Amino acid sequence: MKLGDVYNSEALDNGKPLAGVTILAVEQMQALPFATMLLARLGAEVVRVEHPTDGDSGRGSVPFMTDTTGRRAGATFLRNSLNKKSVGIDLKHPEGKRLVKELSKHFDVVCENFKAGTMQRLGLAYEDIAEVNPKVIYLSVSGFGNTVKSQYDSWPAYAPIAEAMSGLYEYKRVDDSPPVVGPSGALGDISSAMFATIGILAALRQRDRTGQGQYVDIAMYDSMVAMADLVVNFHSLGLRGGRSAPLIMDGFRCKDGWFIIQVGREHQFERLAQTVGRPGWLNDPKFETRFGWRTHLEDTIRPAVEAWAKDKTRFEACEVLAKDGIAAGPCHRAEDIIDDPYIDARAMLVEIPRTDGQADPVLVPGNPVKISGVAQGPETYPATLGEHTDEVLQSVLGLTADDIARLRSDGAIG
């Protein structure tokens, strides 16, 4: 899907479900920017506030391309910044803080994802904004939340910190090997963003009912405990000391790579045994219970499955297993995803044209939320730093060109 294209174009006339909702986002990196991009895709108007010279720290990530202003546009910024406006304001400048407070009067949602306590020190916390906009929905996303005191209050956090603390890394670590960090991208960020999105939508609905503003507080640690739910759940049910759940949920080698099988019920195991030509497993005492599947995974099940799959591609193996009612999927590489007709049909990749002379576009994930009567897209280009500063200050606050020039001269805006 290219910028400006529309998927499900027959729904264009229906508009977007969040049309009319306005969001002022003091955001950086991914935990909040992914949420506001999702909300923008659903129709909200999002204005992001960035430092006027440094910008969102995601702009400085690598790999990167050079934007039309000659600045770095990092990967983290590019994949989380479609459909937003950018305003450059220095929050540490007295006039900058005043501007954000004035702007907040005109927005339904004000959100931030700085370390807990940062916005309080700046005088831009929920209480400060609610003072001038009592109906505001105020969202905070941080490593450990803002509503309780804890031993983690002074700790900075990125996605892998929350992922590690959730128990997920230890749960999947093998023997004495080091943990595999970031096994599924920025799961700590994306999960926090999803819960933040749910929180904003619920708070908006609550405001519709009560007329009252709301404070939504999302902790990345909380979000990852929820995502890694089986860690403490299995522990509480007796799976301790390295014992795994009695499932076949493993990768197997085939002709061109690896594929995954999940078997968790007896009837599924029966189908697997028949499919790979091992019907004798069904009467073998060592497979009398599900725990035998784990005990004999390496000495019996893996050799049989991989012998069956050795002349098959990943797709071929999974196609046979799926036809027999067994859940399986190929371990895709990036190029497999890019070339997958399903991904194209679902508009799950968006092409961002490069601005630095490179031919191939930057690819970022599309909107995973498909609603029958709502069009996907059109997507707009990630804004350059401060691209909409003048426009927003004029249209929202009614500032004149002279007002803006003075603020820029004073260093309050970029």
Can you count the beta strands?
13
Contiguous helical run count: 18
Biggest sheet features: 6 strands, parallel
Give the helix/strand class. alpha/beta
Beta fraction: 15-25%
Instruction: Please list the strands of the largest sheet in the order they lie side by side.
Output: 5-2-1-6-7-8
Straight-line distance between termini: 33 Å
Extract low-pLDDT stretches.
none
Using the alpha-carbon principal axes, give the shape.
elongated
Provide the gyration radius in Å.
25 Å
Query: How many structural units, i.e. domains?
Result: 2
Here the CATH topology of the largest domain equals Rossmann fold
Helical proportion, percent range: 25-40%
Residue-averaged pLDDT, rounded? 95
What does this structure look like?
By secondary structure, the chain is an alpha/beta fold. The chain folds into two domains: 257 residues, Crotonobetainyl-coa:carnitine coa-transferase, domain 1 (Rossmann fold), CATH 3.40.50.10540; 84 residues, formyl-coa transferase, domain 3, CATH 3.30.1540.10. Helix content is 38%, strand content 15%. It has a six-stranded parallel β-sheet, with helices on both faces. Strands 9-10-11 form a three-stranded antiparallel β-sheet, with helices on one face.
